[in-house]
Specification:
single chain; alpha/beta; globular; 4-stranded mixed beta sheet
């Protein structure tokens, strides 16, 4: 698939290491969930709905070992990654500026209110430093392997927090950490509780159907796997999801997908610039496409890639669960 499409997903190419305590931290921000396996570890362990209290803090250490220290709770936060936007909405906040389109989703701010949030020029891959600093942010949150290069230019003017979510547990951990830093602890606990309750309910009603998430901008699609994709990490808990990572450059063919008898197929069309059509319509040109059970039975669902592919926070993952469980019934 195109290099740009691969770059969007490349952040998640590092497989989640077994035994990693996703979300552990200091100063009350982290989430200690050692009993819950990381993404891709299987679906046997039921998600706990218990939420530990979050304590306000001016210093946290996130699940990846990154320490963030602030003099006071941040008011102006610039988001360079959709996870940041997701968390802020969960906490009842709005970013000072963003380069994500996830806020326009009706489950977030909606198009009208999202249009009021300033957009950082330069796009996801190359946000402009001067534009970021023009908003005088107290905190800038970006993706470590994409925006880490901006850290030297931001140093001294603001605090940069590089995040790298690899599982839903990581996402919960980041939620708790930012709730601690902003002092919005009650909102953080409420958001975590809502997500855990939704996930536990979906697990209880687990479907025996075979599901698949594919992504791309043209016929050269990729398969989202639990080891490399946060949303896909939820699917083994709620359905049969027999897809494993083959590395950044490896994927599955339509022949292999056909052999797995996929019952429900979720499609993320990644658009770069002007929309050029749905991925599912392009794949329909291949004669094998019509033979997949999901295609035959009208169970091909084009989903919002801003939420499914890029959101990665508890609000986005809640939307994923709602839409996936509805389709899997």
């Amino acid at each position: 698939m195109p290099r740009t499409a691969l770059r969007v997903r490349r952040w998640a190419a590092i497989a989640v290491l077994g035994g990693l305590l996703a979300g552990c931290g200091t100063s009350g921000g982290g989430s200690e969930e050692a009993v819950e396996p990381a993404a891709g570890a299987g679906s046997g362990t039921r998600t706990s709905t218990e939420v530990r209290p979050i304590e306000a803090a001016t210093r946290i250490t996130d699940a990846k070992g990154v320490t963030v220290t602030l003099a006071e709770p941040p008011q102006k936060i610039v988001c360079l990654v959709a996870l940041c936007d997701d968390i802020l909405v969960e906490l009842g906040m709005v970013p000072a500026a963003t380069n994500s389109a996830v806020l326009a989703h009706p489950g977030f701010l909606g198009k009208e209110k999202a249009a009021e949030v300033p957009v950082v020029p330069g796009g996801f891959l190359s946000p402009e430093v001067e534009a970021i600093l023009s908003h005088r942010p107290d905190l800038v949150i970006g993706l470590e392997d994409t925006h880490g290069k901006l850290a030297p230019a931001l140093k001294g003017a603001t605090t940069f927090w590089p995040v790298q979510p690899g599982s839903w547990q990581d996402s919960v951990g980041y939620l708790r950490d930012l709730a601690a830093l902003t002092g919005r602890t009650a909102q953080g606990e409420k958001a975590e509780k809502a997500f855990r309750t939704k996930l536990a309910g979906a697990e209880k009603a687990r479907s025996d159907r075979t599901a698949l998430i594919i992504f791309g901008s043209d016929e050269n699609f990729g398969v989202a796997t639990p080891e490399t994709d946060v949303a896909a990490g939820l699917l083994p808990k709620i359905a049969h999801y027999p897809w494993k990572s083959r590395g950044v450059d490896g994927s599955y063919s339509l022949e292999e997908i056909l052999a797995r008898d996929v019952d429900v197929l979720f499609v993320e069309t990644l658009s770069f610039g002007a929309p050029d059509g749905r991925l599912s319509d392009k794949l329909a040109r291949n004669p094998l496409w019509s033979r997949i059970p999901a295609v035959k039975n009208g169970k091909v669902i084009e989903v919002d890639s801003e939420v499914w592919a890029k959101g990665r926070g508890t609000r986005s993952l809640g939307v994923v669960l709602d839409e996936a469980t509805a389709a899997l019934r």
